Amino acid sequence: MNIEIALLLGQDGLTNGAIYALLSVALVLVFAVTRVIYIPQGEFVAFGALTLASFQVGKTPGTLWLLIGAGVVVALVDLSSALRSGQRRHIPRIVGWNLAYPAVVAGVIHLFTPAELPLLAQIVLSLALVVPLGPMTYRLAYQPLAEASVLVLLIVSVAVHLALVGLGLLFFGAEGSRTPAFSEGSLSVGSLTVSGQTLWVLGASLTLIVVLALFFERTIYGKALRATAMNRTGARLMGISTVMAGKLSFLLASLIGALSGILIAPITTIYYDTGFLIGLKGFVGAIVGALSSYPLAAAGALLVGLLEAFSSFWASAFKEVIVFTLIIPVLVWLSLTTRHVEEEE
Amino acid sequence: MQPHYLLGGFLVLLLTVPQIASEFHVTLLNYIGLYSIVAIGLVLLTGIGGLTSFGQAAFVGLGGYTTAYLTTATNLPAWAAFLGGAPWMGLLAGIVITALVALLLGLLTLRLSGHYLPLGTIAWSISLYFLFGNLEFLGGHTGITGIPALTVFGLVMMDGRNFFYVIWAVVLIAVWLTVNLLDSREGRAIRALKGGVVMAEAMGVDTARSKVVIFLIAALFGCVSGWLYAHLQRFVNPTPFSINMSIEYLFMAVLGGAAHVWGALIGAGVITILKQWLQDWLPRLLGASGNFEMIVFGVLLIYVLQRARDGIWPILARLVPQPVVVRAVPQAEPLPRKLPPDKGLVLLDARKVVKRFGGLVANNNMNLTVKSGEIMALIGPNGAGKSTMFNCLSGVDQATEGEVLFAGRDVTRLDSREIARLGMSRTFQHVRLLGTMSVLENAAIGAHLRGSKGVLPAMLHLERGEEARLLAEAARQVERVGLKDAMFEPAGSLALGQQRTLEIARAMCADPCLLLLDEPAAGLRYLEKQALAELLRKLRGEGVGILLVEHDMDFVMGLADRVVVMEFGEKIAEGLPEEVQRNPAVIEAYLGGVE
Fold first, then answer.
1. Nearest Cβ partner of A334 from B51, B112, B127?
2. Candidates A150, A284, A334; nearest CB to B123
3. In A, which residues are within 8 Å of B131 by CB distance?
4. What pLDDT, in 10s, does the model give residues A254-308?
5. Contact B112 A338 (CB under 8 A)
6. What's the start-to-end Cα distance of chain A, in Å?
7. Does A76 touch chain B (CB under 8 A)?
8. CB contact under 8 A, B286 and A170
9. What is the pLDDT of residues B492-538, one digit of tens each?
């Protein structure tokens, strides 16, 4: 290996690592707020990328039907519980978010031909379509079990993951898609050529992380999420709705997931089930951060990206083996350094 | 346990099915059997132990690949040549390898909180899947073909109908071993993992070991299933050992009834048949081919977890009328007892104990002694730090400063399990019982350290002699505290006062020389309190030292030999009950002073 290849691999690793870092931050967030180990995060990566790809080839993405269907189910569940508890004032909001909003998105897709829109509009439309699926998933799968043990929530996560992967196959078929790069240009520094998409990924990741940091530090909702993460009961006593916190954290996670997918789609071909492995690499990062530290999780995820890039050069067939075995020394370290008191049911 | 005629009917069915069913159905039932073996392990791990693994298919793969490689390899090195060729050697090697891997993974993750095991097993199972697919000597993604058939008692198992008996015999053995294990001293320790770790440790149970044990058993069941699979199919490739299959195994366990051994069979059956059926119909319905049954499984599982978290088995069990079993009170030769300590010997000596939680000082400079054959009462207003002191003394928590001597040894840094071994036993202010276990079994957990038989004898029920003596001891103590009539009721059905007395019975089962009782009389009626006082006096007469936290002053003053009064984490008075009652500082602490 010479320096040029090393730089090239480093660039690859950093790009993927940035994506994993975004995902690992989202995973830590969801775990801290809801105690959910969010395995389905990867499916949002695939949904984001494949929805955008569908728009670009002039197809209506199947995720639209999922949005409409999930919206109807959420509306039915919420309306029946609102009527039973006599809280009629919630009805407009329920109808608005779960029935009217998907209808509006469907209308926009129908009126404008998305394939002819500029890229930015396509991306916004993809996000508008995929991101609300996050909180809807929370409402349907997790919220009725919000007080259950981590173990039960984890099994739910796996069930959601399976269902979403199956739906992904149904919507997008078994073929993969790759979207064109955001910009054609590239940057030359000495002998190193940095592709435009790499810059997009790094720039977008950094921006998103800064925005998230500001959100958590400066806004009341960000502070509410941090409070819930620290102490659920305490937060609830202070008037913070844990349901709201759960939905908000899932909203942020699905935003991060879908955006990651859109960013990475020009770099690697995305299949309906690619998201799982991408998400799990985010998890390896998150575990480096012991599922609690954002900076450590992000650093761990970058390490995963670099390790993956370099091992694909030396032993490409064993790339995944090496990446997922990284978790072992991390677990050794964690188990030597933490004194743990088991959660009692 | 279900009525015997149901079990008998099931056995008859198993014997006749291969003779009458079609080839297709026998194959289906063979798979259900193979999956059941794995699911039984997961029931033990997940439903009963409260842990979970997404790596079971990888263990199945280890079992399958080990035997496949060893029975087909032509160039084994000389030192391993004895393992080659024979399926039974393949099983042996598979078991050894699986045990090593499971032990390593277990030791790595089980000291961390519960969710690291599943995450670790996801990663390990993906690694192994890619490893199987990329290692040349394992045939890569095409796998290994030409695996020899299994020979059992000289019979060559060439077709599925013969193999049916082998598989289902293994299923029944797995059920038998697991049911046996759960009904034993080790089994009670395992059942305490879910929701009773602090209590179990205080009773001397090594809960980390119990976790490793069930993970190991579940992995080995997987390995055996994989070995059978390899010799049934006669070829292996990586696909059936992927993470998706691991997830399906977990679904089987959860759907069938995660806490019921027989539920594993139901879950495996339902999922396998449903999958077959959905794979026929869904592609036709949706007009595309693919594993769409995943969508149905996912949604179904979420629904089950939300609506019937205990799975199908309890629902089925309710349909069968439960026979009225007259259970006899266990009788057996009493367990050996420790020699009572000399009267008046200082058992417990706490010196300048300080406990801080961050900036809050819960105990400050606490000195305390308890002698054998005396009742020492620790009293004080709410929030004085009495329970914290108890936790520091019994090793549930550790003192920040100072030292605690027990039975002549420095126990300040020991954990509760080691302290229990030295002869201290305790009850908890917030009752820590296992609600679904019977009163008798709850008490028997206290006797954990008085038995020594391990997991293997328990699985084979070779420890019945010791078990009978443990249960008889538990029954004696339950009777002694006056709960004889409720002996076989679930502990969760008792009134709070009775639950407290059951905690005392459990503590007494350990044959302690020092008993720590945290508010034993709370929630008791007058007559029950008198009976409790009588019991404690009797224990005192036997030489047991008793340290008591209590709010009921009549109870304390009539019973205690000495009293220590705490307020705001510090000792404000110590002495005979009459002295303490006259002490102005105590009166001020309880009634408020005159400004």
1. B112
2. A284
3. 318, 321
4. 999 999 999 999 988 999 989 998 998 998 888 888 778 888 888 999 999 999 9
5. yes
6. 53
7. no
8. yes
9. 999 888 898 999 999 999 999 999 999 888 888 888 888 899 999 99
Q: Where are the domains of chain A?
A: 19-273
Q: Which two tokens stand for residue B96?
A: 């050894």
Q: Return the minimum-mean-pLDDT range out of A156-160, B134-138, B324-328, B338-342.
A: B324-328
Average pLDDT over residues B551-570: 89
CB B150 within 8 A of CB B204: no
Quote ipTM for the complex. Answer: 0.89
3 state SS for chain A: CCHHHHHHHHHHHHHHHHHHHHHHHHHHHHHHHHCCCCCCHHHHHHHHHHHHHHHHCCCCCCHHHHHHHHHHHHHHHHHHHHHHCCCHHHHHHHHHHHHHHHHHHHHHHHHCCHHHCCHHHHHHHHHHHHCCHHHHHHHHHHHHHCCCCHHHHHHHHHHHHHHHHHHHHHHHCCCCECCCCCCCCEEEECCEEEEHHHHHHHHHHHHHHHHHHHHHHHCHHHHHHHHHHHCHHHHHHCCCCHHHHHHHHHHHHHHHHHHHHHHHCCCCCECCCHHHHHHHHHHHHHHHCCCCCHHHHHHHHHHHHHHHHHHHHHCHHHHHHHHHHCHHHHHHHHHHHCCCCCCCC
pLDDT greater than 60 at residue A341: no
Please list the residue range(s) of chain B that carry CATH number 3.40.50.300: 346-434+495-591
What is the tens place of the pLDDT at every residue in B6-54? 888 888 888 888 888 888 999 999 999 999 999 999 999 998 998 888 8
With CB atoms and an 8 Å threshold, state whether A151 touches B114: yes
**Does any CB of chain B come closer than 8 Å to the CB of residue A331?**
yes
Chain B residues touching residue A166 (CB < 8 angstroms): 290-295, 298
Chain A environment of B140 (Cβ under 8 Å) = none
Which CATH architecture describes the domain B346-434+495-591?
A: 3-Layer(aba) Sandwich (3.40)
A146 touches chain B (CB under 8 A): no
